[in-house]
Write a structure and sequence with these properties.
single chain, alpha+beta, 8-stranded antiparallel barrel, 2 helices, globular
């Protein structure tokens, strides 16, 4: 074999080796970088709030019905989309007359606006499992930007019941809203009801 023939084969061998490595990388890619759809378990989805009452103490409450889903890559910690829908009529503060007031036009106006909707616009993950979630909240027919502090909790196959056996991700999140930003300014000026509403979210989501 001549020296020219050996030299001509080297580029072909290098190209073959490069192509083989590239195919191997592409084949392995879905194993570590694959966005998956997660559906929030409505039985383990808590949305709580607290707001100042006449300066004496905070009133605590919850929304009892909500649903949501998101597309997330756990390996690269990349969030592609997220949407949460809250049934505003499900507000609960452990006081019937107060809850009726919260549902009327002074506050949530649930007949005209039966849902509050959050849609994610971006997520910045930190190395320690926390992150900042940005999005848009539509409330009382108005859409405003919001940002939540997020902590990712346990990520594993759900232990029970045996029939569930789905990979589950637990998430905690908090944010503070100014309700007047959405036009909910009842009793803000006289200080009877605080403008700031502190929100806490606890959820478990099953990977599909």
């Amino acid at each position: 074999m001549s020296a020219d023939t050996r030299r001509s084969r080297r580029p072909r061998a290098a190209r073959w080796l490069f192509a083989t490595c590239l195919c191997a990388i592409c084949a392995a890619l879905p194993a570590w970088a694959q966005p998956r759809d997660f559906v929030i378990d409505p039985d383990h989805f808590g949305l709580a709030f607290r707001v100042r009452h006449i300066g004496y103490a905070d009133t605590l409450g919850m929304f009892l019905r909500a649903s949501g889903r998101f597309v997330y890559d756990e390996a690269t910690r990349t969030l592609l989309s997220a949407r949460v829908v809250v049934d505003t009529a499900s507000v609960f503060s452990n006081h019937d007359k107060r809850d009726e007031h919260l549902r009327n036009a002074d506050f949530l106006d649930v007949r005209a606006h039966p849902e509050a909707v959050f849609e994610a616009t971006g997520y910045e993950a930190a190395p320690d499992g926390t992150g900042r979630l940005r999005g848009k909240l539509t409330l009382l027919g108005q859409t405003r930007p919001v940002e939540l502090a997020v902590r990712l909790n346990k990520s594993a196959v759900y232990p029970f019941p045996p029939g569930l056996a789905k990979h589950t991700l637990g998430v905690s999140a908090t944010t503070t809203l100014r309700r007047s930003d959405w036009g909910m300014d009842y009793a803000v000026a006289n200080g009877l009801v605080g403008d700031e509403v502190h929100m806490s979210f606890e959820l478990e989501a099953h990977r599909q």
